[in-house]
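Task: sequence in, structure out. Protein: 4-diphosphocytidyl-2-C-methyl-D-erythritol kinase.
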Amino acid sequence: MSAITVRVPAKVNLQLAVGPLREDGYHDLVNVFHAVSLFDEVTAAEPADGDATAAPLTVRVEGDHTGGVPVSDDNLAVRAAMALAGRAGRTYRADLLIRKSIPVAGGMAGGSADAAAALVACNELWGLGLPVEDLMEIAADIGSDVPFALLGGTAVGTGRGERLAPLETAGVFHWVFALADGGLSTPRVYGECDRLREEAGEAAPRPVVSEALLDALRRGDAKALGQALANDLQPAALALRPSLADTLAAGREHGALGALVSGSGPTCAFLAESAEHAHELAGLITDVDGCRAVVTAHGPVPGATIAGAGAG
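Result:
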């Protein structure tokens, strides 16, 4: 039985500027994505049995973060494989195994990462040979964060985040991620952002990328990058999960160069001076209330990459 394994990274949003709500229900965004070294793996394998009546696509989930991950057609990896087969114009079969290390509903695009990995794995398993441009087009139809999981590195996303332009980045940045108990619904956080703005009588601004952030990335200046980190969804995430304010404060008190809620949360991200500082900072914030685990990572790293192919 042949199988293809693809490794795919989590992301942190260095800047998430949220503009007005559009007629299609999405918001205009400027979203600076940064891929970090927390990885899921998705293996696509030919089914072992010859039962023609079995579902063409199945999914299993293993690993540290499996709670709430669907094992049905609602799983983004399954949806990605179905979309790929649809593009090819025929029915293909595959058993998908997702090994999770990226937090679920944590604002780090774990589900989108799995979808990107499934596209790459099934494209290889089925011998379709579609170019990355075609995979990116399919990815954008599945979800706003899926194209970046294919691309990796550091990039700015516009539109609803799916139109990507790679960014020049010097050096390596070191991160600490505080994983919260439970998750936050992305639609709920966006809805709360809209509600808070309406309550304050604020019109949604036109989203613009931060020149200070771009300059810090080009120079590899961690201190300047820490000062430029920004997330328009953070007030909404804090309103829905007030305990995150204590986590952010703890990171700042212990010397983080920058601290913010990643994406729609509830994961909190802290920028460190070095790998050594990241490990030290992780130890200092481990016992903060509401924080179930702390992990370190670095970035940028590549997007979805074939990690192994085999027969068994």
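The two ends are 5 Å apart (CA to CA).
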